[in-house]
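Continuing the series of single-chain predictions for the mutant panel. This is the parent chain; the variants come on the following pages.
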Amino acid sequence: MPDTISRETFLQYAASAGAAMLLLSLEGFALSVNAKKLRVAVIGCGSVSNRYLPQLLSSKLIEVVSLCDIKYERAVEINAKYNVNAKTYAHIDAMLKGVSFDMMVTLTDMQVHGELNKKALLAGKHVWSEKPMANTYAEGKALLDLAKSKKLRLWGAPAVVNSPQFEFMSKTIQSGKLGRVASAHGQYGHTGPSWSAFFYEKGGGSMPDLGVYNMATLTGLLGPAKSVMAMTSIVNPERTVDDKGKIQVEAEDNAHILLEHDKNVISHVMCGFNYFDPHGHEAGTQSLHSIQVFGDYGNMRLIGYDWETNGVVLDTSWTEPPKLMSTDKGGYEWQEGARVVGESIVKGIEPRINVEHALHVLEIIEAARKSSATGKRVKLKSTFPWPMV
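Parent structure:
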């Protein structure tokens, strides 16, 4: 599966003229990138940086020039570990005043993503942000408006739409092989992170950490959600974590979310930090799937998690056994998003990942919390260019 689509295809299918304007802006920027290399700064040098940096360093079109962490020793350690030869900083303000760069990659605690991304945009930097890109839909929309006003690009994880398995499932639905699609289900859970308290503090939770993947996949396959109904809870009110010891849990660690899509399609996401799963992230057999889509002619099951895909089981016959399809990952990795969008800037092309999709998922998370608190269905106002394949 190609990581990008052509300029002509994007302009043909983009939802608005505004998207075309963004692309032209991107192309113009590409011409100004020195020696056709994008200079990247990474903020947040914890565990996730160990997955992102090899991707970024593997690209001939990207140069990592800055590393930043409020725990400064982590920036120094990761710089040496991967032989990055970058400047290291203890604060974003120092980094923004330091060596020049073009795009910031945000890998910090999720609660500060919005404020850090805003600082980068105000300083004239493109941004790729780990999920979520802000704490509220309003904050995320303001970031997007700011980026557009400054002719900058903003993207938010996850990159699940990049996988060959997502493409296969999308094309299968659009081809009509499943008949009239009625329902879909996504699930992602484990017993909870132990290394940091931010997952359980206000602004954290299982939805922005785990459910966000399923929400991105299901809306990417079925189209934008029109409304949300949800129930969330805290099953385990106390946790013991490495950085703060015993803490009180403030954000949901258990969530069930119903999404209403166009044409009366309903999907469901369940996620949580209390889900025993001895198979972990390597679900590789036909019985271990994370996404399922049902139509009246057939159904599909995505094997593995939607961010760590291993194939798709397609079942369209009353007499023949299900078929395991699309087992080649095509080089896809969940941590490729920053590299892919960074290379798209240099090449002047538009990636499949788009910020409107990430913003829509952020609105779903916020609406799910509101629905759980009020017991009511919550209508959504955001959308994104669709279909994505």
